[in-house]
Amino acid sequence: MAKRLINPRASVLAAVMATVLLAACGGDKGDKASQTAAKVNKEEITVHQINFVLQRQPGLKPEQAEAASRQVLERLIDQELAVQKAQEQKLDRDPRVVQQIEAAKREIIARAYVERVGESVSKPTNEEIAKYYADKPSLFSDRRIYSLQELQIEAKPEQFAAVREKLSAAKTLDEFAQYLKSADIRFSGNQAVRAAEQLPLASLDAISKMKDGDSVVSPSATGLTVLFLVSSRSQPVDEARARPAIEAFLVNQRKGEAVQK
After folding, report:
1. Maximum CA pair distance of the chain?
2. What's the pTM value of the predicted model, to 2 decimals?
3. What's the pLDDT tens digit per position in 32-65?
4. Domain annotation for the chain: domains and CATH numbers
């Protein structure tokens, strides 16, 4: 039976806390023995493993390090026990598990490449940020918050013209929905409130030109989609506030372009 070998537990954890804090402060790494936080059967769990997990917890305060380290160690022990039991049952050789491991490995390697390429990407200049701000008024200077209703209509191509005609003639969306019911045309609807930046960029320009009460029709996989602008309110963003978001967007865009080269 797999078992934990942590003896004595309190002193081991105390050593872990000391080593973690020393590492965080740039202290001496110490010898191999001091780096062992616990043993699960013959396998060691090291302070380096704990530090790796802690480094992925942004905003962790120094006074939280001890409690966080204890929690991380407990999770790593439980994880190691599960891994050992899985290996005993040869689950690590299961084709599905092997595929998942390979997929995760490829994802990690690809992400590392993207991060490496991204390090060489230059930040946008003040002029480039200002130009992007000026070129996207619907996102910034003319930004609005939209209350939208969407209908997904299961219509046949030969019904499209009649549906469009009835939509144009209807005074309200409810009136149009009543027509669909009477014509035995199936549909589903949903409503949402979205800020400009939460809408697809490809659709934003068209939506930003709509007035309250306007609707737009577009083809869909099952027939037609009707987007109805119930109401909207102006909520502009000045360049100073938009600057961090624009810079991040342009940097990510450049990273994507660099990866494709």
Report:
1. 81
2. 0.61
3. 556 888 889 889 999 899 989 988 888 888 888 8
4. 4-92 (no CATH), 94-137+237-261 (no CATH), 144-234 (3.10.50)
| DSSP H or E segment with residue 97 | helix 95-118
Q: How far is CA 188 from the centre of its chain?
A: 28
Cα-Cα-Cα-Cα torsion 12, 16, 22, 23, nearest 10 degrees, comes to: 140
Task: Encode pLDDT of 174-214 as tens digits.
Answer: 899 999 999 999 999 999 999 999 999 888 999 999 999 99
Helix 95-118 / helix 239-260 crossing angle, nearest 10 deg: 120
The rounded distance, in Å, linking the Cα atoms of 25 and 207 is 52
Count of helices and strands (H, E) across the chain: 9, 7
Token pair 């003319």 is at which residue? Answer: 142
The candidate with the shortest Cα–Cα distance to 12, out of 70, 55, 72, is 70
Q: List, in order, residues 6 or more apart from 171 with CB less than 8 Å away.
A: none
